[in-house]
Specification:
This protein is an alpha+beta fold and about 200 residues long. The strands form 2 sheets. It has a 4-stranded antiparallel β-sheet. Helix content is about 55%, strand content about 10%. It has a domain of about 120 residues: Aspartate Aminotransferase, domain 1 (Alpha-Beta Complex). The longest helix has about 40 residues.
């Protein structure tokens, strides 16, 4: 579809600044389910068949349950993290009782994990996929290392008298923390709309 100008094109955008996961913005109402993705899913189903689909489901749901169990059972993680809700399928969300969860998200990103930050409440969710189901133990180990590291940083800040307010703000905190604290969500909508506009510029 071609538009005469950007103003007309902006009416196709879907932007929800109050979603609990954070600012949700997509180029159209289809959101994260555009036609190309649907076609790709259909092709995958035709390739792996029903048995392949069921096998993948077992692996993915099993890994998600293993991640939940590991967070609950690990002395390092259970003292600082808590699972949100009762994960039944492939998504595991957790928050931190003692640390800035966005610092954890940034540190996990630095280790190569692409986890999703949430805004209300501040949290992280892991969308378990087939590749993650094969390395979930490494994810948990990296999460333990990150939590230990963040606890140590917090201890140092307290000893030095800087406190949480004196620390540098990471990427996740800058995006989700600031967006969640703005009373006027119109600003957030304008920023999201501007971001979507950049996707269409040559």
């Amino acid at each position: 579809m071609l538009y005469r100008n950007g103003t007309l094109r902006s009416y196709q955008y879907f932007i929800s600044p109050d979603w609990s996961g954070g600012v949700y913005a997509s180029p159209g109402l289809a959101g994260s389910r555009p036609g190309a993705l649907i076609a790709g899913c259909w092709a995958s189903m035709m390739s792996v068949g029903e048995s392949g689909y069921i096998s993948s489901c077992h692996s993915i749901v099993g890994a998600a349950k293993s991640i939940v169990s590991a967070i609950v059972a690990s002395p390092t993680l259970s003292s600082d993290l808590s699972i949100i809700g009762r994960p039944l399928v492939s998504v595991v969300a957790f928050t931190s009782k003692t640390l800035d969860v966005y610092d954890i998200a940034d540190a996990m990103t630095a280790k190569g994990w692409h986890l999703n930050s949430l805004q209300d409440p501040p949290a992280i969710h892991v969308a378990v996929t087939l590749p993650i189901s094969k390395v979930w133990e490494r994810l948990v180990k990296d999460l333990e290392d990150v939590v230990e590291s963040e606890k140590e940083k917090e201890r140092v800040r307290v000893v030095e008298g800087k406190g949480a307010k004196g620390k540098a703000v990471g990427d996740s905190a800058a995006l989700y923390g600031v967006a969640g604290s703005l009373p006027n969500k119109g600003v957030v909508v304008q920023l999201a709309s501007g971001f979507l506009d950049t996707l269409y510029k040559a």
